[in-house]
């Protein structure tokens, strides 16, 4: 029994290397999992206004150096996903200049979920 315990003991530096390796892995994968995506939500404030044309917005924002990932309709609004959160302020100012009065522009910070994360979530199916 004493020989078995002696064989299982490792030098302290082995544990230090293991702990350091785990910290490096956590530091590398945390930004990937918790990455936030910057998005702006544009919706009409007045009755009778329709959603602005996404291509029109894309052209004008691109001319001003604001990089866009996507523009998608969502319910009664248009969601503009930006490549970087640093461009939110510039994009809001540009959209206020581009769009006529009557549109509300709101920040919409959403966490970006990777394709493998929903597999571990509690996705329930309704039967019947």
Comma- or semicolon-separated keywords:
about 130 residues; alpha+beta; four-stranded antiparallel sheet; two-stranded antiparallel sheet; 5 helices; 6 strands; about 40% helix; rod-shaped
Structural overview:
The protein is α+β, with helices and mostly antiparallel strands and 128 residues long. It has helices at 2-8, 12-33, 54-63, 88-98, 117-120; strands spanning 36-37, 39-44, 68-74, 77-82, 103-107, 110-111. The protein starts with a helix and ends in an 8-residue tail after the last helix. Residues 111-117 have low confidence and may be disordered. Modulates the activity of the EnvZ/OmpR two-component regulatory system, probably by directly modulating EnvZ enzymatic activity and increasing stability of phosphorylated OmpR.
How are the SSEs ordered, and which strands pair?
Elements: H1 2-8, H2 12-33, E1 36-37, E2 39-44, H3 54-63, E3 68-74, E4 77-82, H4 88-98, E5 103-107, E6 110-111, H5 117-120
Antiparallel strand pairs: 1-6, 2-4, 2-5, 3-4
Number of strands: 6
Mean pLDDT level: 78
| Low-confidence sequence ranges | 111-117
Determine the strand fraction and express it as a percent band: 15-25%
Sum this structure up briefly:
This protein has 128 residues and is an alpha+beta fold. It has 5 helices and 6 strands, in the order ααββαββαββα.
């Amino acid at each position: 029994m004493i020989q078995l315990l002696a064989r299982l003991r490792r030098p302290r530096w082995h544990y230090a290397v293991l702990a350091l390796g785990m910290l490096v892995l956590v530091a590398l994968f945390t930004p990937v999992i918790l990455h936030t995506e910057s998005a702006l939500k544009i919706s009409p404030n007045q009755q009778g206004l329709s959603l602005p044309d996404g291509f029109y917005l894309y052209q004008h924002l691109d001319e001003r150096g604001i990089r866009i990932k996507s523009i998608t309709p969502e319910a009664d609004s248009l969601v503009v996903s930006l490549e970087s959160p640093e461009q939110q302020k510039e994009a809001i100012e540009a959209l206020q200049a581009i769009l006529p009065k009557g549109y509300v522009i709101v920040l919409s910070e959403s966490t970006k979920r990777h394709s493998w994360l929903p597999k571990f979530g509690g996705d329930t199916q309704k039967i019947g």
